[in-house]
Amino acid sequence: MLLGSAFSRYTPRSFGLKISSKAWYTSTSNPLLASLTAKLVPQNKVRHFLSLEDYSPAEIFALVEKASSLKKICKNLPLAQKDLDLKHSLHTSPNLSGKTVALMFTKRSTRTRIATESSVAFLGGSSMFLGSSDIQLGVNESLLDSSIVISSMVDAIMARVNGHEDIEELAKYSSVPVINALSDSSHPTQILADMLTLYEVFQKPAQSVQDALKGLKASWVGDSNNMLYEFLTAFPKCGISLAAATPQNYPIPQKYIQLATSSPQNAPIYITTSPAIAISGANVIITDTWISMGQEEEKKQRLLDFAGYQINDSLISAGNPHPDYIFMHCLPRKPDEVSDQIFYGDKSVVFQEAENRKYTIMAVLHSLLVDSTDH
């Protein structure tokens, strides 16, 4: 592995933190409001799913294991004993019967919405989609008020928001579990789907998720965004090393480098501006959109800034990843980010990855709402 001015290897140490400004008004930005509403915070401890930062490696592995079992059950694949045990519990438990999951989305969604609604239906529950045109989330009604009211009528909330402080505000006052369907700094259900995909591709017979993932090298080539932040939060502590290449003007916030290097047991991370260096020896190459929702006005400049970052045959030849590498992209994809040859080629597992959104979301719902032994 090449190190030097273009490539930095990070190990556990102290970093200064930068806190971004809040996009929406919340109780945490107003001490007086926080003191007045303290009594409204639910007294019973509710387990949420806001970021993989909040989950231990063992809990993350368990969710991926459960997702793998649920996929086999749903698709009538051969079942091991642990899969049969889960199938039996699904047949003998009420699961989500009589329960409602609210989907509160302030941004567009394809895979997340379909995965969630189909998962809730499989588990016997009902889902209620509440888009930005349906409710006044954070507009004419505060997040605080919305959280208290909506959580009093449903059994869980799946929320796709703008700022991460919005999902934290919803969770703070919700009396039911809140699941992060995407925020500007976190996308935990997507990273679980990616981990399930890695497990399916690289596992050996009867191998656990932990053993299958340990020692893999993942490479990120693209924007410094919520996907990369969540990878930094989860991959190193789960034994997956991560090399990330972002353009010079798109640095990774120190907070996420600190999280990735918070324990000497974590797998190492490498930061560079060179895509070719980042993918050297990689088992999996990952990219994402260069222009996220809300950044459309920056498109012209971003296309200039990301010149040389397309995943294509030339980059693969220059970077020399592992011969058995795979390619992943969370979708939707644009040709600027990855060539057709790579995206539709034999190394690509993007559609398997997309399908796995369903089973990992189902595993989170089951663990939070059905299987009390998981939390």
From TrEMBL:
<comment type="similarity">
    <text>Belongs to the aspartate/ornithine carbamoyltransferase superfamily. OTCase family.</text>
</comment>
<dbReference type="GO" id="GO:0019240">
    <property type="term" value="P:citrulline biosynthetic process"/>
</dbReference>
<keyword id="KW-0808">Transferase</keyword>
<protein>
    <recommendedName>
        <fullName>ornithine carbamoyltransferase</fullName>
        <ecNumber>2.1.3.3</ecNumber>
    </recommendedName>
</protein>
<feature type="domain" description="Aspartate/ornithine carbamoyltransferase carbamoyl-P binding">
    <location>
        <begin position="47"/>
        <end position="200"/>
    </location>
</feature>
<dbReference type="GO" id="GO:0042450">
    <property type="term" value="P:L-arginine biosynthetic process via ornithine"/>
</dbReference>
<dbReference type="InterPro" id="IPR006130">
    <property type="entry name" value="Asp/Orn_carbamoylTrfase"/>
</dbReference>
<dbReference type="InterPro" id="IPR002292">
    <property type="entry name" value="Orn/put_carbamltrans"/>
</dbReference>
<dbReference type="GO" id="GO:0016597">
    <property type="term" value="F:amino acid binding"/>
</dbReference>
<dbReference type="InterPro" id="IPR036901">
    <property type="entry name" value="Asp/Orn_carbamoylTrfase_sf"/>
</dbReference>
<feature type="domain" description="Aspartate/ornithine carbamoyltransferase Asp/Orn-binding">
    <location>
        <begin position="214"/>
        <end position="367"/>
    </location>
</feature>
<dbReference type="Pfam" id="PF00185">
    <property type="entry name" value="OTCace"/>
</dbReference>
<dbReference type="InterPro" id="IPR006132">
    <property type="entry name" value="Asp/Orn_carbamoyltranf_P-bd"/>
</dbReference>
<dbReference type="InterPro" id="IPR006131">
    <property type="entry name" value="Asp_carbamoyltransf_Asp/Orn-bd"/>
</dbReference>
<dbReference type="GO" id="GO:0004585">
    <property type="term" value="F:ornithine carbamoyltransferase activity"/>
</dbReference>
<dbReference type="Pfam" id="PF02729">
    <property type="entry name" value="OTCace_N"/>
</dbReference>
<dbReference type="GO" id="GO:0005739">
    <property type="term" value="C:mitochondrion"/>
</dbReference>
